[in-house]
Design a protein that fits this description.
The structure is a homodimer. Chain A is an alpha/beta fold and about 350 residues long. Chain A has three domains: about 45 residues, 434 Repressor (Amino-terminal Domain); about 130 residues, Rossmann fold; about 140 residues, Rossmann fold, CATH 3.40.50. Helix content of chain A is about 40%, strand content about 15%. Chain A has twelve helices and twelve strands. In chain A, the strands form two sheets. A six-stranded parallel sheet of chain A has the order 2-1-3-4-5-11, sandwiched between helices. A six-stranded mixed sheet of chain A has the order 7-6-8-9-10-12, sandwiched between helices. Chain A is elongated. At the A-B interface, helix 4, helix 5, strand 2, helix 6 and helix 10 of A face helix 4, helix 5, strand 2, helix 6 and helix 10 of B. The structure holds a DNA duplex (16 and 16 nucleotides).
DNA sequence: CTGTTAGCGCGTTCAA
DNA sequence: TTGAACGCGCTAACAG
């Protein structure tokens, strides 16, 4: 004897509630919506039935009826284990939540096929919008989504091959500034460690590095440039190779936090006094016992702005039909600033100044 | 003249495809399912129509028809910015993906109301299962979900008030071991820094700490116990207070990485030589220039096991109806081990040994 | 204030 | 090998 409650698959439906309360399903709908045109007594009966049956309305059926408004936004990132992306997820979530939207997070693992199928799945699930950090330059799946009137916002990379809003970090300027700082300290042989050229931010930051060198009249030297490292281990090895050159660089600029940490380890291991600068601030950067120049920026603002751009598009798409449709794509750039960490332990009161996003409760 | 393509809201439907291919919707369904009983010629026409219209089947309608199987699992965590949780999300995702399932991540921000509404929303969206790290002891919303035959698995905390599978870390044993290590080094005044008592892991780790003290014949002293810190800043202040006592502790045990990092900062700032031990391994722990004993465990395994337990339940729930229904709840415990970090910089080749989950591509 | 009708997009059932 | 009818659970539009 199966313990089916009211309906076949165990879930009480609106009709079950209606029957129990001796009303029509429409009345149930109205009560659930707090429609004032329902007699208090009736509403009470319905509410009682809802409670007794443990009824929850089926959002699937609901959003089918309501035609494409699931109240979900899709967020596509390459690696959630990177604090940058998990914070992005949080800040995006906080903004869209203000609009009553939930976030579905997809992780591509930097794989284009994953990314494509993920985006297609989100579209098939009728998310109301997508925020993506695309892995590469092939963004046809995103273009397709945008072409189907799904608002798309790119974070940290610009759209290629189609039009969409995006939020960027000042990759070029930040890298240039940091490199200039090294030059100003007298360095002339400055190495570069970064991600593969195909990664937009890596390429931009390399440009900034090169621009600073050129402006200072320092000839670029490919011997000092390594751009295939995505993990700290790879970065440490690449840095060690540079340090082992006959004429090693006296300073290193790293285009992201993985490379900075790897370079730090290589420098420590070698006991070298190579100067170090890098893109991205990170926790404990001030505690490494090495002078360190970092390019910092408000990564939470990046996520919030992405959320704002997206909700703006969603609003536009639904309210009007002609004018707002073709608002030109917006592009926001998050500014960067340089942060210097020293050899001495920082006072504890400085702790709160940098983002304390990593609160725990474990 | 609105540029509606085929259907009113811009989305081509199965019927649009059917019309264009001059077949019925049923044939379209069959082609999409690669049903061999369709004439190759017909199938080709349909595929062409699909391509030309850019048709994607509507997963919303599909899962409505298919009655509660959305292919989605919900993951509820308290703070995604904590690496522990973002890695949990990744490892859970990797396991459920093998079963063709996607993950919906919800962040509660440690707020019970958020958690409740999040879980209810997931249930209303008919996720096929839920993995949760509940914020507190009030788990009625999870119990309700479980009662409605939504498989629920708890991670890092046990269920209270209902039955469910769960994966735990050996909180008690790990904390006891670390404290014993401090005792073995001769320490007798050992402080404790941790999260609020309401947090299960915090309470268990305090128990482990206390058990070790008792076994060593050291009388517990509440003066040395602070358990309200959730962020590094709070932890640093609490640690500083302990260090400023007339008879300060000579060692500190911290029940999680936030407290360990905070304590580290306080010790550095004070220039003290207080010994430090803590629960959770974390990146750069080896680079702090302080001796450090950490309780490490395989956090990825925790997520994978949670995923396995959940998919196991989902399978059971759908295949049979009588026997497997009441399989007793399973409880897995992830073992811990102690890791020692020293004052000297570690060689770079040691880098790869600890999890390199934080690869970046930025 | 409440109920009836109709249909969102898809897939199952049964018939042709 | 293909199609027509029906319904999943819900709600907009119109009665009454």
């Amino acid at each position: 004897m199966p313990g089916a409650r009211e309906s076949k698959d165990g879930w009480p439906t609106q009709r079950d509630v209606a029957q129990r309360a001796a009303v029509s399903t429409m009345t149930v709908t109205r009560v659930l919506r707090d429609d004032p045109r329902v007699l208090p007594a009736t509403a009470e009966r319905v509410r009682a039935a809802v409670a007794e049956l443990g009824y929850r309305r089926n959002e699937i059926a609901r959003s089918l009826r309501l035609a494409s408004s699931t109240g979900l936004v899709g967020l596509v990132v390459t690696n959630l284990a990177n604090p940058f992306y998990s914070r992005l997820a949080l800040s995006v979530g906080s903004v869209v939540a203000e609009h009553g939207l939930k976030t579905v997070i997809g992780n591509t693992g930097q794989d284009l096929d994953n990314e494509r199928s993920l985006v297609e799945d989100l579209v098939a699930r009728r998310v109301d919008g997508i925020i993506a950090v695309p892995a590469g330059a092939d963004q046809r799946h995103l273009a397709a989504a945008a072409a189907q009137d799904v608002p798309v916002v790119l974070a940290s990379r610009p759209p290629v091959g189609f039009e969409a809003d995006c939020v960027l970090v000042d990759d070029f300027g930040g890298a240039r500034d940091a490199t200039e700082r090294l030059l100003a300290a007298g360095h002339r042989r400055i190495g570069f460690l970064g991600s593969p050229p195909a990664v937009y931010t890596g390429a931009e930051r390399l440009r900034g590095y090169a621009a600073a060198l050129e402006a200072a009249g320092v000839a670029p030297d490919d011997t000092y440039v390594r751009q295939e490292q995505q993990q700290t281990g790879e970065a440490a090895r690449a840095a060690a190779e540079l340090l082992a050159l006959p004429t090693p660089p006296t300073a290193l600029f790293c285009s992201n936090n993985r490379n900075t940490i790897g370079a730090f380890r290589a420098i420590s291991a070698a006991g070298a006094d190579t100067a170090l600068a890098g893109f991205d601030d990170f926790e404990l950067a001030d505690a490494l016992g090495l002078p360190l120049t970092l390019v910092a920026y408000d990564s939470d603002e990046l996520g919030r702005e992405a959320g704002r751009l997206l909700t703006g598009r969603m609003r536009a798409g639904s309210v009007r039909d002609e004018t707002a449709e073709d608002t030109p794509p917006r592009r926001t750039v998050i500014p960067t600033s340089l942060v210097e960490y020293g050899v001495l332990p920082q006072g504890i009161w400085q702790v709160g100044e940098r983002g304390e996003a990593g609160e725990t409760d474990r």
